[in-house]
Structures are given as structure tokens and as C-alpha cells.
Design brief:
Helices cover 41% and strands 22% of the residues. The protein has a five-stranded mixed sheet with strand order 4-3-5-12-6. It has a five-stranded mixed sheet with strand order 9-8-10-7-11. The chain has a two-stranded antiparallel ribbon with strand order 1-2.
Length: 305
């Protein structure tokens, strides 16, 4: 494929056509007339040797190839948008733009809230949008990072991309206040016999992989995509949950649970912000990383819980 021969405007047209599934609405979306949009569709059909939009009754549906292209086109569109939005200079006091960060609810609660406060003070025209970490982040990290400004995630889950370290945390366990089978300390036998509440794909977390190395296989009874729900799903039950100490400290008032230390030397949590290399030299992204580093430094000066 010779990219020099391609008209990148067709990426914009393809994105609109696949999203709208209608030539007229796609043209309105990107400011093209109906004849111009029809011409773009004809060029795209010749390029892919596929109808892309197939008429079914009174409307159009995506062909099998168009279904495949839908996600790829969205990613390419985001990458191009971010590429051509790159700046040599950036003045946070006067700029107006949005940064998209992918993060778990843990990272937003512990780090994102303080980041948003600092950004509000220093850059009133800047918006932050946090989106939930997908369970498939480790399967296609490059695609995710290419369509966002940063990923908040600890070391040990992904690698091979630039990152800046933010702060450290440690792992603790939650049990119900009135748990009948756990006194003031947990044992390794407790971890093997008690039911667990876990966050998403437990096997991706270095702390859970460490349990496997210790011969402990968590008996997962409930799995959720929110760290902040863990205390509620532990309270009043025999379950246990592994959670970050900083978050446990924030969540103590919401549920009758106790925080207990692991009965082993748990691996620490080193939270970082990861990004795609395309952002490395962009002035606005350099500013975002500098602010994130400052916020992380403040957290490092505070105790975990």
C-alpha cells in the first residue's frame, strides 16, 4: 500500500459513512454535499472492491467488510485528529481542548480527582474526560493508546510504551466487620478457603499472579468492573477482596468492613501514566505529563492509608 497515493480525506468520508450508514447524513456530518459524498463513496467502493453500504429495503446496512472497517476507521480517525492537532507551543492559561484518559475507577478516585483540581486551577479551558479501562486493554494496547491521551495503569500489566511514574500504593484485604471466620489477621489458608470479590480480569494483576506463585488459587464468587464496589460486596458476607490501600482509606466510611494486611509480602503498586509515542513531543501532551508528574509527587509525599 502506497500511502502517498491515498487521499486522507477519504478516511474522514469513510468514518462518516460507516457511522451514519446514510450518504446524505454522512455529508451533513462532515460538510459535504450529497453529490460529493456519493463520489467519495464510489471511490471507496473501488478501493476496497466492496459495496460497504448495501441497500436493504429502505435503508443501508454495513457489509461484512464495512463491519470490520468500522472500528479500524474510528481508530485511524482519532489518530489523524490527534496528529494534526499537535502543537509546537502550548499555553495552558488560554488553550481550550480536551484530554482523554483511560483509567480504572481506583485511579480516578485516588489520582484523577487531584489532577482535575490542578488542571481547573491552571488551565480553565482544558477539559478532562476519564473513560473506564477495558478488560481487553492488554490484548491491543497500541490501538487503545493511539486513540487516547493516556492510560493510568500500574507497572506489570503492560509494557513497551513510554510512561511516567506517578505514585506508589500497596495491597490490603477487605473483610466484613462482623466476619465470623476472620479475627484480626488473615492467614494464607483463609485466602484459599474464603470466597473472593475481584476486579475484572484478576489474572492480569501482578498481585494476583503473585498469589498463584504462592500456591493460592482465589475462589472467585463475584467479579465487577469497579474497585469502589468491592467494599459493598464484602460487607455482611464471608467474602474477601484485594484492594489498594489508598482507595481502602477513601472507602472506609461507605461500608462496614475491616482492612487487614496480607499474610505475605505483597508486591507494591507503582502507578504510571502510559501514552502512545506519537504524543511524546507534542507541547500540550508534555504539559499534561508535567502536571501529572507534579500531582503524583504530591501523592508520594503522603502515606498510603
Amino acid at each position: 500500500m502506497n500511502l502517498a497515493r491515498l487521499d486522507l480525506n477519504l478516511v474522514v468520508a469513510l468514518h462518516a459513512l460507516l457511522k451514519e450508514r446514510n450518504v446524505t447524513r454522512a455529508g451533513q456530518r462532515i460538510g459535504l454535499s450529497q453529490p460529493a459524498m456519493s463520489a467519495a463513496l464510489a471511490r471507496l467502493r473501488r478501493h476496497f472492491d466492496d459495496d460497504l453500504l448495501a441497500r436493504v429495503g429502505g435503508h443501508y446496512e454495513l457489509t461484512a467488510l464495512a463491519q470490520v472497517l468500522l472500528d479500524r476507521t474510528s481508530t485511524a480517525y482519532d489518530v489523524l485528529e490527534r496528529l494534526f492537532a499537535s502543537q509546537a507551543d502550548f499555553d495552558p492559561a488560554t488553550e481550550s481542548r480536551e484530554f482523554k484518559l483511560v483509567a480504572s475507577d481506583y485511579a480516578v478516585a485516588v489520582f484523577g480527582t487531584e489532577l482535575a483540581r490542578v488542571v481547573h486551577q491552571e488551565a480553565p479551558g482544558i477539559r478532562l474526560r476519564f473513560t473506564q479501562t477495558s478488560p481487553t486493554v492488554v490484548d491491543d494496547t497500541a490501538t487503545l493508546l493511539s486513540a487516547t491521551d493516556g492510560l493510568l495503569m500500574p507497572h506489570g500489566v503492560i509494557s513497551g510504551f513510554p510512561a511516567t511514574d506517578l505514585y506508589q500504593d500497596r495491597w490490603v484485604f477487605l473483610v466484613a466487620d462482623d466476619h465470623p471466620g476472620v479475627p484480626d489477621r488473615l492467614t494464607r489458608q483463609d485466602l484459599a478457603r474464603l470466597p473472593w470479590v475481584t476486579y475484572q480480569r484478576t489474572y492480569d494483576a501482578p498481585a494476583v499472579r503473585q498469589l498463584g506463585m504462592l500456591g493460592i488459587e482465589p475462589r472467585v464468587e463475584v467479579s465487577v468492573d469497579s474497585f469502589q464496589l468491592l467494599p459493598l460486596l464484602v460487607a455482611g458476607t464471608r467474602r474477601i477482596a484485594l484492594v489498594q490501600a489508598r482507595l481502602a482509606h477513601l472507602l472506609m466510611p461507605i461500608a462496614p468492613v475491616r482492612v487487614l494486611e496480607p499474610p505475605y509480602e505483597a508486591v507494591p503498586v507503582q502507578e504510571a501514566m502510559w501514552w502512545h509515542p506519537v504524543h511524546t513531543h507534542d507541547a500540550s501532551h508534555i504539559w499534561l505529563r508535567e502536571v501529572a508528574s507534579r500531582v503524583g509527587a504530591r501523592l508520594r509525599r503522603t502515606r498510603e492509608a
